[in-house]
Design goal:
117 residues, 0% strand, elongated
Length: 117
C-alpha cells in the first residue's frame, strides 16, 4: 500500500513544500542598478503584495473548507470524517506558516529600522 503525499494548494505558487527556491534577487550577468535587483518581484514575476494577498485568500479558502466540512460532520452529512481532519490540518498548518512568515517580516522590518544611515 502506497501513501500519496499531501498537496497543499496554498503553497503551489511557491513550487510546493519540497521545491521552494529563493527568488533571484541579483542578476550578476545583467547591468547594475534597479533592473538588476528584483526586490519587489517574486515567483513568476508577480509583485510581492499580490503574492501576499493571494496567500491570504488561499488561507481563507482553506479555513472556509474546513469550517464547511466541520458543519457537515456535526450534522451527519459527511460520509468520510477523514476529509474534515485533513482539511482542518491543512488549514492549521497554513495558518502557522502565515504567522511565521509575518513574524519574520516584522523582524526584518525592525532590523531595517534599527540600521544607522
Amino acid at each position: 500500500m502506497s501513501i500519496s503525499p499531501l498537496e497543499f494548494p496554498s503553497f503551489s505558487s511557491l513550487g510546493g513544500a519540497a521545491g521552494v527556491q529563493a527568488p533571484n534577487v541579483i542578476n550578476p550577468a545583467g547591468p547594475a542598478g534597479p533592473e538588476a535587483v528584483g526586490a519587489t518581484k517574486g515567483v513568476d514575476g508577480a509583485e510581492f503584495g499580490d503574492l501576499v494577498l493571494d496567500g491570504i485568500d488561499r488561507l481563507e479558502g482553506l479555513n472556509d473548507r474546513a469550517d464547511n466540512l466541520a458543519v457537515q460532520a456535526a450534522t451527519g452529512k459527511l460520509e468520510n470524517i477523514h476529509d474534515y481532519t485533513v482539511a482542518a490540518s491543512e488549514a492549521s498548518i497554513a495558518g502557522q506558516l502565515t504567522v511565521a512568515v509575518r513574524n519574520r517580516a516584522v523582524e526584518a522590518f525592525n532590523e531595517i529600522m534599527r540600521m544607522q544611515v
